From TrEMBL:
Residues 169-231 form the Metaxin glutathione S-transferase domain. GO terms for cellular component: mitochondrial outer membrane. This is Metaxin. Residues 242-262 have a biased composition (Low complexity). Residues 238-279 are annotated as: Disordered. Residues 25-117 form the Thioredoxin-like fold domain.
Length: 315
């Protein structure tokens, strides 16, 4: 477990790679959002559970916000009054539509490219390089299967689905490029979570995906998006400075504050952090448990493949 000490909040994310503070396409926007908000935080790296959908998460005092709850980490931080950069913009139709494109079209493109496109080596480096080769390979195959199921991809429609995913990504780039122009931020020259999503997406696409990536090539057609992301990489990821207006975050609640504050809060999540603590206590059992699950998966997959072959023989 590696840590970077910076403040009282802690962001738990996947490991750095490709010159990025975290190479996970879901973790990176959260990191940038906290930087935009000028929120001091520790960066803690967790590589033990590559298939956990709880990561990234943010914790401090009695509070924790997991990725797999209430729309993700950033949405929880906003709802719970920890830090909200979107309050003035989130009801604007343009903001809502752009946010939807980011969370669906561009997120789908990254997922497809990592697991089914040209990004296989990148996916292995991000998620599985710390595991034994056999375990990492089998988990990768399982994830590929899950992604195909998610997108409803079969041999018959694979080319059509790929074209749809790439076309939507290209349309999103055109819309975002037009809206951005040469501004520093997408709305009123101040950062929002949409900027964190976009900067994270662009940096991940440029740094983590190979040169023959379709969406990387499509992104490079929009020079203003590239310049925008590189500018913020220098401002926020390298120097750690922020041009945002006054800091807009609340300090982590202590146990006393949690019990005496009159402000409504979510249910105390410190108990739930026991889940995260049990993560660490049970780390030594992870590989064995995953191996059992993977072997079961492969046996079922093999049975399914055999059944398909029998059907073909009958035809």
């Amino acid at each position: 477990m590696e840590e970077s000490r910076d403040g009282d909040w802690t962001l738990v994310a996947r490991k750095p790679y490709f010159g990025l503070p975290t190479a996970c396409p879901v973790c990176l926007p959260v990191y940038i959002y906290l930087k935009f908000a000028r929120c001091p935080f520790n960066l803690e790296i967790n590589s033990a559970y590559p298939d956990s959908d709880q990561i990234p998460y943010v914790e401090g005092g009695t509070y924790v916000a997991y990725n797999n709850e209430k729309g993700g980490v950033i949405q929880q931080l906003k709802q719970d009054g920890v830090v909200d950069l979107d309050s003035e913009f989130s009801s604007l139709p343009e903001w809502v539509s752009m946010k939807a494109m980011m969370s669906s079209w561009l997120a789908d493109a990254i997922t497809y490219e990592l697991w089914l496109g040209s990004g296989e080596n990148s996916a292995k480096q991000i998620y599985y390089s710390d595991l034994p080769w056999v375990i990492g390979k089998v988990l990768f195959v399982k994830q590929v299967y899950d992604v195909k199921q998610r997108f409803n991809i079969s041999k018959q429609n694979a080319e059509k689905k790929e074209e749809e995913i790439y076309d939507r990504a290209k349309a999103a780039y055109r819309a975002l490029s037009t809206m951005l122009g040469e501004q520093d931020f997408l709305f009123e020259n101040r950062p929002t979570s949409l900027d964190a999503d976009l900067v994270g997406h662009v940096l991940f696409t440029l740094k983590a995906l190979p040169e023959d990536s379709v969406i990387r090539a499509a992104l490079l057609e929009h020079g203003n998006l590239v310049r925008y992301a590189e500018r913020h990489k220098n401002d926020f990821l390298t120097s750690g400075q922020s041009s945002a207006s006054a800091s807009n975050f609340q300090p982590p609640p202590s146990a006393a504050q949690a019990s005496s504050s009159s402000k409504p809060k979510r249910k105390p999540k410190r108990e739930k952090t026991e889940e995260e603590k049990s993560f660490q206590r049970k780390a030594k059992y992870f590989i064995g448990a995953q191996l059992v699950a993977v072997l079961l998966f492969l046996s079922l997959l093999g049975s399914s493949s055999k059944a398909d072959l029998d059907e073909d023989d009958e035809d």
